[in-house]
Description:
Layout: H1 31-43, H2 47-55, H3 62-67, E1 77-81, H4 87-94, E2 98-103, H5 106-118, E3 128-130, E4 143-149, H6 158-167, E5 168-182, H7 190-200, H8 212-215, E6 223-231, E7 235-244
Parallel strand pairs: 1-2, 1-4, 2-3, 4-5
Antiparallel strand pairs: 5-7, 6-7
The protein binds S-adenosylmethionine (SAM).
Amino acid sequence: MPRADPRRPPPSPRARGEGRGERSPVPRLDPRRRIVSALFGLLYRNRLLYWLASTIPFAGQWRVWQRLALAHLTGPDVLEAGCGPGKLLADLVAAGYACAAVDRSPQMLAAARAELRRRGFAAAATPILLASVQQLPFPDASFDDVVSTFPTDYIADPQALREIARVLRPGGRLIVVLGAELLPTTPLLWPSVGVQRLVYGRHSGVTCASGAATAMPCAQAGLTGRDVCVRGSFWLAHLVIAQRTG
Ligand SMILES: C[S@@+](CC[C@H](N)C(=O)[O-])C[C@H]1O[C@@H](n2cnc3c(N)ncnc32)[C@H](O)[C@@H]1O
């Protein structure tokens, strides 16, 4: 499950203003996206299901797509937003970054802590906190980079982007692996592509032409975003890199 919907940014901001008492209209999701969101909600509570769902339908490329973020990091201080089961977090720690992570699923946090232990890292050195991206428990200007791979709708929430901008240092970057899709380049991939199309729709297209960086409410959060397309031999991935301007 690249983000709740791996292949498509949310159609419009989910302006919820969690944790700050703000309330703005929440766009209605179409029935397919509502079902998919509910299913993904279940996955975030079970690390085995999560692993199966993020591995098999994506031909094992999920981890490849996550790691696309690494090339854009400046560091040394990195926050992972919505860290899920912590696979990328462990990669970041292994690469020598001073990391912190948040997720709002206690089960995913437990999995992330276990992943760090499994990879031989002292979990105490990496704060992994139960928190919402819309209300980050860190002082202003704490991080050089914020990484978010396969985010749910929070990535289109102005409050979440404002919080991310707040904890970034001036010039710091939000690096988002927004989505990815397998391409039907060989018959072997047709079943996986079929599953993706069934779940996400035929024309859900994460493409570099989709202009997600401009659709995300970056500017009002003080971020300047740009789309980055990465094409592998049988997949297409879509990143957004957004820099804190002030
Ligand atoms: C699709 S998963 C991606 C997890 C991980 N980044 C990955 O690449 O496997 C989305 C994660 O974001 C978390 N999440 C969703 N909304 C959140 C929010 N508002 N604040 C913090 N975490 C959130 C979910 O619990 C889930 O672990």
